[in-house]
Model the fold of this input.
Amino acid sequence: MSFAKQADRHFDQIEAQLRQLQADCDVRSMGNVNDQKDAELGQLTTTLAELKEQTRELKDKEKKATRDMESALQDADEDVIEEMREKQAEDYTYNQIYMMREEAQADLDGLIDIPADVLIKYEQRQKKIDRYKLEARGIQTKLDVVLEVLEKLKGRWYPKLKRLVGRVDDQFSSAMDKLGLNGEVRLAEDDPNFENWGIEILVKFRDKEPLQVLTSHRQSGGERALATAVYVMAMQEVVNSPILLVDEINQGMDRNYERSVHNAFVKSSCRDSVGQSFLLTPKLLPNLDTHPKMKVLVIHNVSFGNATRIQASR
Done:
């Protein structure tokens, strides 16, 4: 056999050995891979079994929770039942369910145990409140009827009263204007209680001040006397009274105002359309206006034991 053929055979043997070695290596490598895969498969099988057990436990908890919920809803209000039905129809994610559970648990943690006697007292008081509410509705119904009747009655006299006050205001304003002053008469009707209604007289004695209500604090005594006298005369023009008695109305007045008021009073009182008027005063200014229908009575007081002389003059 030639050397070349021997060499070729030798190379063939070496190549066959190499392929055998490669095959052995491949077999051993596949064995290692298989061992690794078998280990992973065993781990996955264990995990799957655990997941199945957890799923079974969750299903059992769900069934128990459903039974508890259905039992609780038997005594619940209709709006609570409707809300639960709406929530059951919604598709929640795990995170949403978890957050809802946490919120519900927080609400439960905030609750405290209420003693039975407290609940009994609460229920008793609630019954009283319901009874009082019922009584209040009955009273309110009666009140509405009374207010309706009062409103109808008010419709009969209120317009007449407003017209009467308006006439007095016209007379008062006109008289004050003749004196170079400003005045107004109005009905004080802001209070819903008729007993607190009244007449307000507003006057203005100085140019730079607004109309102000006549009171014992704002105006001087003379200013109040003047406004009162003018108001009495305004009333005399509107209201027919058989007798008018005015006592010391001129006390504290300015001399010019006193003369003007006296002259206006004489003119107003001596008309045929008015009743009898009396003016009582401890003093009078000289040279005042007179009228044929006037009668002046002067009373002189003297010492005890002497007769009181009354002089009458026209």
Summary: Confidence is low (pLDDT under 50) at residues 1-8, 307-314. The longest strand covers residues 182-188.
